[in-house]
Write a structure and sequence with these properties.
Number of domains: 1
Largest sheet: 4 strands, antiparallel
Strand content: 35-45%
Radius of gyration: 13 Å
Number of strands: 4
Number of helices: 2
Helix content: 25-40%
Order of helices and strands: EHEEHE
Distance between the termini: 8 Å
CATH class: Alpha Beta
Length: 96
């Protein structure tokens, strides 16, 4: 079993308030959840209007599959045109 974590820091140029930010983040999270079988949540920069850190976790039998899914999600979020990815970090764990 392999657990993959993708941490992304996003810049939200269209967010002019925390309300705008929440709407954009909720949209991104909803789209990723409906398209991919992953856990995703806002994990940082909660009080900043135009910045958000999201965490995404995927578990599979093989590391290649997990890496592939996380790469697809990374590209998918970039192509949504709702946010600019300013930082990303991928971590892989095998808890055995």
């Amino acid at each position: 079993m392999v657990v993959g974590l993708l941490r992304m820091e996003l810049y939200l140029p269209a967010a002019n308030s925390l309300k705008d930010k929440r709407q954009i983040v909720k949209s991104i999270i909803g789209k990723v959840e409906s398209k991919y079988n992953v856990s995703i949540s806002e994990v940082g920069n909660h009080e900043l209007w135009q910045r958000v850190t999201i965490g995404i976790a995927h578990v599979s039998e093989k590391g290649e599959q997990t890496k592939k899914v996380l790469d697809h999600i990374d590209r998918y979020i970039e192509n949504l045109d709702k946010a600019i990815v300013s930082e990303r970090q991928v971590s892989m764990f095998s808890p055995e």
